[in-house]
Amino acid sequence: MPTTDDDLSDVTREAPAWSGSTAVRLLIGVQLRKHREACGMDREQAGYTIRASPSKLSRMEAGRTGFKVRDVADLLTLYGVSDEAERGTLLAMVEQANAPRWWQEYRDVIPDWFESYLGLEQDTSLIRTYAVQVVPALLQTEDYARAVISRSSPRPSPLQVERRLALRARRQRLLGEPDAHRLWVIMDEAVLHRRVAEPDVMDAQWEHLARMAEQPHVSVQVLPFTSGGIVGGIGPVTILRFPQQELPDVVCMEHLTTAQYLTKSTDVLPYHALMDQLSVAALPASATAALARDLIGG
């Protein structure tokens, strides 16, 4: 488990526009805070050096804003970090964090809050998600996704639908990297009975879901109707875990026009408990492929 959950607590209440590597940006913030606290300096003193307010420095330490190489270099000097190797590594990370990511070409169909999620999703090692209405985006076929996107609110134009489809297909590439990403899905049984498209589209979706569920890096469980009301009205939720042990898990709860991100251990742990409870109540992952294929032709 990560050991510095509270270092990034400021990230929980708003969705920043992260364009570079989110994990790298968060790591830089953690390191800057560690060095500042080690020399006993407050944010007001440190901010004065780079002509920044304490609130801006707080955003930097939380990874919620971009970094200038000059500012980071000045802060490292102020904090007494003189080792050239350490300075060089951190400044190289700044360059990496500022580099544009692939989704920049889709900015016309990505709201700011969702850009934040894309940065998190791409940098994770494990994605745990609970789906209550539709098949998760990473497991959707093109035609199923088109039906879902077309019915979203506000209604997108035909061009927007195709652009969002292209974005979704690009996101799905991360599941082609089994050594880097794992996906663990728990779906409410209602997802399997909600027909969002024509029968042939649904049949193709169920076959695709079955094949994905058979992949070693993908786990899909179904929460049956017979499990009762253990969820207590909780909607869809995703927990993102990063390969860097310094970073806390992030809980993402998507709403109609925004999203909420939680990183403080006191906020995140109840969602881990929820996911564990759902996993125990759900059918085993080994049963999912057969369940999905049983729906074909139905």
Automatic annotation (TrEMBL):
Domain HTH cro/C1-type: from-to ranges: 31-86
InterPro entries listed in its UniProt record: Cro/C1-type_HTH, DUF5753, Lambda_DNA-bd_dom_sf
SUPFAM superfamilies in alphabetical order: lambda repressor-like DNA-binding domains
Top-level taxon of origin: Bacteria
A molecular-function term among this protein's GO annotations: DNA binding
Pfam assignment, any one: HTH_31
Protein name stated in the entry: Helix-turn-helix protein
SMART domains, sorted: HTH_XRE (SM00530)
